[in-house]
Every structure is written in structure tokens, then in C-alpha cells.
Design goal:
This protein is of the alpha/beta class. Helix 2 packs across helix 5 (about 145-160). It is built from 19 helices and 27 strands. It is globular. It folds into three domains: about 5-195, 3-Layer(aba) Sandwich (Alpha-D-Glucose-1,6-Bisphosphate, Chain A, domain 3), CATH 3.40.120; about 200-430, 3-Layer(aba) Sandwich (Alpha-D-Glucose-1,6-Bisphosphate, Chain A, domain 3); about 455-585, TATA-Binding Protein (2-Layer Sandwich). The strands form six sheets. The protein has a seven-stranded mixed β-sheet, sandwiched between helices. The protein has a seven-stranded antiparallel β-sheet with strand order 20-21-24-25-26-19-27. It has a five-stranded mixed β-sheet with strand order 11-10-12-13-14. The chain binds alpha-D-glucose-1-phosphate-6-vanadate and cobalt (II) ion (CO). Alpha-D-glucose-1-phosphate-6-vanadate binds near residues 352, 375, 404, 532 and 534.
Length: about 575
């Protein structure tokens, strides 16, 4: 245990984005790159008042290339920075929601965790030529708030040295168990425990849902499902829940062995990248039904997860559930889930700004407090942990979600892919109490929801890998024109307000500016533009389109939104700035 101080110099571009720092593996493997960021994080975390010598530091990741090496480096640096106790996911694996669960659920008193490093670039491709990522979560399991990530970035700009114990032994993370290392003079001891990647999270899920009821649904002869974890980290969790706990055949779990390059794929659960599942469910990449040979067996329920297991896509038999609708349906049916029902029902609901207003209609109807936050999960944590907002209660039943296939609740402080899958199965189980009756399907549940609340037609267009300077110029132009655009008529729409979204956190008053250009139409339709904060290189423009229809619920989304999409492309002049109107992904 002999810390040494290594001198270094700042490296450009280490600003954490929407969810941590994501760059090419090659960049991360440069001399001092990872070390600079990790030291800057330790310094920011200590400055925010965390005593890293008490409690445990959790480390785990989505298993992508460089995961294993990064873990050993972080342990050695952690020891040099005063950390005495580590919990490492077995094989270096921990899904993002599982990290949050480990922090919250594991170990009483001084043994509890003070924070975690999560090694993931989520849905970005992995492998030696692809992306790596790292982020820090705090003692409630929540992603570091903006004031901490700002401080981390500031530190990376002025760093002069980092601390590391080069002689600390390399830990074999393949075997559960504890390694104790004593300082030569016996004055201190460090202990590194390799923990089960799945136990804490799966136990938590079992306490939230009614597993026997879900099992009864899955056991029905007329109900089949598949869960595609896309070679990401969620495979072992899926197997544990569906095969071990719920007694289902292995075939339910597709692509369930984690690989360090996600088998060369793009572990992103949407209609474009989850190709294999989408075809199996009888859909095309626009979410439309395809003709299938008579007699072919399509599962009644399909789901997919991303690389780090926090995202979910929900599909019925030849039916796509948009993430914004999925959030609204889960909120409308929250009482089906014991976790909420037994705590006196849901109290709070939150969505990110670009997410459709479908959930707003439910929150209003059922009298839940509603919050609109910037994109990214870090803004939800403060709301869930607030005693002030909800009349001094310690425990606030809360659901939140994003249009980007992320849904979750206050059981952890991250979005949780498998939680969303189980939430849907629980809702289906409650909708189908009698196995002798015909099945009430995913499509039945969603269309009944639209009949009751109306339908928020929604689409997101992504323009990936575009020129950063030009894309920034395009956004800047819309920001400076916002006032002038307010009041204008475009086609059959009148722009009631154009602005760049600013969020004031209702709990601590912190202000987050420049969170997305909004065109809010008089009839409630919306057009939104943002630059992605997770792109590893280049830039990604996101264009979000929403139009509410109280009665016409059976149109094709692309047709319902046709006019508004044309208007959006003109308002931003993407053709002028970037020379294209063709998105790379539509969801
Ligand atoms: C994207 C999504 C956002 C999500 C974030 C992290 O961010 O739009 O909703 O919270 O990814 O998810 P951006 O800035 O690229 O739009 V994950 O599963 O990539 O950690
Ligand atoms: Co993710």
C-alpha cells in the first residue's frame, strides 16, 4: 500500500455529457486519460463532502472492451486516494440499475456504499475501435448532479498529478470473495470484495413485483414472450429472473451472453437496432405490421435492453409501444404493481422535456404531481429524494421516464430496463386474471389507454455523426431567433412560444440552461431540437415531434405527423446547415 504521485497534464475534452464521459476506447487507453478523469472525480467527490475512507466504493460495468483493465486501475487509484473497501461486480459486470441497487440495498452502517464508478457507454457500440465510458454515482445510487460533474470537468482542466498504488495486487474478479491487503506496517487494511452481479438487484425486483402472478401469466399456454438483451450486461439478470425465478425456458432470453463488443452490434433497443427482435415480433423498422406466413408463431410480448441494461423497448404481437406511451400506461396502471399499491399509491411523476405529454394527461387525471426535467436521469434523483415536495414523507412513490426508451421508479436512482419489462408483465397479469378467458394483449391495453386519454403522436429523428460546428451553428441560430419566431404562423400551426428550455430544480433551486430548443404550438403540438450529450465523437442532432389527437387514435404516426415534420425541417434549415434531411434513426 504505497501510494505514488504521478505527474500529468490536462487532457482536452473530458467534460461529462448527459450520462458520464464517453469516448473511443483508443482515446481512453492513451497515457493518463483514464487516470486524469478518475483523479478529477475523486477530488470533486471529496470536495462535495464525501469521506471516501468510510464505506464502500462500488465498481462495475457493462462488460465492454477495456472494462476489465479500467476496473484494476480504479481500484489502485482508489486505494491511493484513501478508499478502504471496494465492492466489484463478478466478472466486472454490473448493470447501471444494479449499481444503483447495490449502493442502496447492500450492507448496513459504515459498510454501506458512498458511491460508484459505472463503466459504460450504454448503447454505443463496443470493442477496440468503438466506445468506452465512465460515470460516477453518489450515495443514494443517483448519477452525480451537474454541480459535481462541472467540478470534475474543471478539475480535468487543471490537473497536475494523480495518486495510484501501483503495487496493489491485481484482483481476480471472476471469483466471488474478499481480498484483504494490509499495509506493511499493519497500520491500515484495504478489502476488496467481489460480489454477485445480480443478487441485490434481483432480490429488489422480487420485493417490488408479484412474481407468482407474473409466473401464472408466463405459464399460460396462449402466452409467449422473448427478451433480447442484445449481448449486453442484462443477459445474466434476464436469465436469473425469467429462467431461475420464474421457471421459464432459456429460449425466452435472446442474445443473453454479455460480449465485450456486443457481438459487433449496436445494443440499442429501438426499431432500427433491435432488428432480430423486431422481425420476430412481426414488425418492420417503422413499427408497422409485416405480412407473415399463415401459422407462424409470433410472441405475445417482446422486449429489448441496451448494453448497460437501463433501457427498454416494449413490443406486443405486431405492435410497437412508443416509450412515451409506455410511461403513460405504466403510470396509469401503477396500482397493479405491489410496490406502489402497498405504499398508498403513486405520488409523483416526472418526464424529460422532449418526452411526450401522454403521461401529463394521466398525472392530471389521477392527481399526481408532475415534473418536466431536462434530458438525462440525473435530474430525477433530487425529486425522488425530496421530503419538501411531498409533505415531509421519507418515501415517495415515484415513476419517471424518457422518450429514449428509459423508464424507472424510486426503487433505484437510475432507469431500469428489466423493471420496465416486469412492470408491463405485471400489468398484463392483472389484466388477465382468468387463464380460461382470451388474452388481453399489449395492443388492447394501449388502445384502451388512447381511447380514454387521446393519443400523443410522437416521433424522434436522429441525425448521427454530423459536423459538430455546423450543428452547433444551427442550434445557435434557432436560439437567437426564438423571440422573433414566437407568434409566427407556420402552415396550419401558430408558434405560441419558441425558447431554449431552462430548468429550475424545485428542490435546490439550481438552474440548468440551454436544454433544448422548443417550438410550442398554440394547439399543444411541439417541435424540439437538441444536440445529443452522449455522442462519443462528432455530433448528433435530435428532432422531436409531437401532436396530440383527442379522438383520431388509429392513424399511422408518420402520416399523422407528416405536416409537422416538414415544418420542423424548414424551421431548423437542417438542409442548409448540414446538407441533409435524411435521419439515420427514426424512433
Ligand atoms: C440520451 C437520451 C437520454 C438518456 C441518455 C442516457 O442522451 O436522449 O434520454 O438519458 O442518452 O441514456 P442524449 O444527450 O444523447 O440525447 V443511456 O441508456 O445512453 O445511459
Ligand atoms: Co443505457
Amino acid at each position: 500500500l504505497c501510494p505514488i504521485i504521478v505527474s500529468t497534464t490536462p487532457i482536452d475534452g473530458q467534460k461529462p455529457g448527459t450520462s458520464g464521459l464517453r469516448k473511443k476506447v483508443k482515446e481512453f487507453m492513451q497515457e493518463n486519460y483514464l487516470e486524469n478523469f478518475v483523479q478529477s472525480t475523486f477530488d470533486a467527490v471529496k470536495a462535495s463532502g464525501t469521506d471516501v475512507t468510510k464505506g464502500s466504493l462500488v465498481i462495475g460495468g457493462d462488460g465492454r472492451y477495456f472494462n476489465d483493465k479500467a476496473i484494476q486501475t480504479i481500484i489502485k487509484m482508489g486505494v491511493a486516494n484513501g478508499v478502504k473497501r471496494f465492492w466489484i461486480g463478478q466478472d466486472g459486470l454490473l448493470s447501471t440499475p444494479a449499481v444503483s441497487a447495490v449502493i442502496r440495498e447492500r450492507g448496513p452502517g459504515w459498510q454501506s456504499a458512498f458511491g460508484a464508478f459505472i463503466l459504460t457507454a450504454s448503447h454505443n457500440p463496443g470493442g477496440p475501435d468503438e466506445d468506452f465510458g465512465i460515470k460516477y454515482n453518489g450515495e443514494h445510487g443517483q448519477p452525480a448532479p451537474e454541480k459535481v460533474t462541472d467540478e470534475i470537468y474543471a478539475n480535468t482542466c487543471s490537473i497536475k498529478s494523480y495518486k495510484i498504488c501501483k503495487d496493489f495486487p491485481t484482483i481476480d474478479v471472476s471469483i466471488p470473495g474478499t481480498t484483504n491487503v494490509k499495509a506493511d506496517d499493519g497500520s491500515s487494511e484495504v478489502n476488496v470484495e467481489v460480489i454477485s452481479a445480480t443478487d441485490n438487484h434481483v432480490e429488489l425486483l422480487k420485493s417490488i413485483f408479484d412474481f407468482p402472478a407474473i409466473k401464472a401469466l408466463l405459464d399460460r399456454k396462449d402466452f409467449t414472450m422473448v427478451y433480447d438483451t442484445m449481448y449486453g450486461v442484462n443477459g445474466p439478470y434476464a436469465k436469473k429472473v425469467f429462467v431461475e425465478e420464474l421457471g421459464q425456458p432459456e429460449e425466452i432470453c435472446m442474445n443473453a451472453t454479455p460480449m465485450d463488443d456486443f457481438n459487433g452490434g449496436h445494443a440499442d433497443p429501438n426499431l432500427t437496432y433491435a432488428k432480430e427482435l423486431v422481425a420476430k415480433m412481426g414488425l418492420d423498422r417503422n413499427g408497422m405490421k409485416i405480412d407473415v406466413p399463415a401459422g407462424s408463431k409470433i410472441p405475445d410480448f417482446g422486449a429489448a435492453a441496451d448494453g448497460d441494461g437501463d433501457r427498454n423497448m416494449i413490443l406486443g404481437k405486431q405492435f410497437f409501444v412508443s416509450p412515451s406511451d409506455s410511461l403513460a400506461v405504466i403510470v396509469a396502471n401503477a396500482d397493479a404493481i405491489p410496490f406502489f399499491r402497498t405504499q398508498g399509491g403513486l405520488k409523483g411523476v416526472a418526464r424529460s422535456m422532449p418526452t411526450s405529454g401522454a403521461v401529463d394527461l394521466v398525472a392530471k387525471d389521477l392527481n399526481y404531481s408532475l415534473f418536466e426535467t431536462p434530458t438525462g436521469w440525473k435530474y430525477f434523483g433530487n425529486l425522488m429524494d425530496s421530503k419538501e415536495l411531498f409533505g415531509g414523507e421519507d418515501y415517495t412513490p415515484f415513476i419517471c421516464g424518457e422518450e429514449s426508451f428509459g423508464t424507472g421508479s424510486n426503487h433505484v436512482r437510475e432507469k431500469d430496463g428489466i423493471w420496465a419489462v416486469l412492470a408491463w408483465l405485471q400489468i398484463l397479469a392483472v389484466a388477465n386474471p382468468d387463464a380460461t378467458q382470451p388474452l388481453t394483449t399489449v395492443e388492447d391495453i394501449v388502445t384502451a389507454h388512447w381511447r380514454k386519454y387521446g393519443r400523443n403522436y410522437y416521433s424522434r429523428w436522429d441525425f448521427e455523426g454530423v459536423d459538430k460546428v455546423k450543428a452547433t451553428a444551427m442550434i445557435d441560430k434557432m436560439r437567437s431567433d426564438a423571440e422573433a419566431n414566437t407568434g409566427k404562423t407556420v402552415g396550419k400551426y401558430k408558434i405560441a412560444k419558441a425558447d431554449d428550455f431552462t430548468y429550475v430544480d424545485p428542490v435546490d433551486g439550481s438552474v440548468s440552461k440551454n436544454q433544448g430548443i422548443r417550438f410550442l404550438m398554440e394547439d399543444g403540438s411541439r417541435i424540439i431540437f437538441r444536440l445529443s450529450g452522449t455522442a462519443g465523437s462528432g455530433a448528433t442532432v435530435r428532432m422531436y415531434i409531437e401532436q396530440y389527437e383527442p379522438e383520431k387514435i388509429d392513424m399511422v404516426a408518420s402520416e399523422a405527423l407528416g405536416d409537422l415534420i416538414r415544418i420542423a425541417l424548414d424551421l431548423c434549415d437542417i438542409n442548409g446547415f448540414l446538407g441533409t434531411e435524411e435521419p439515420t434513426v427514426i424512433t
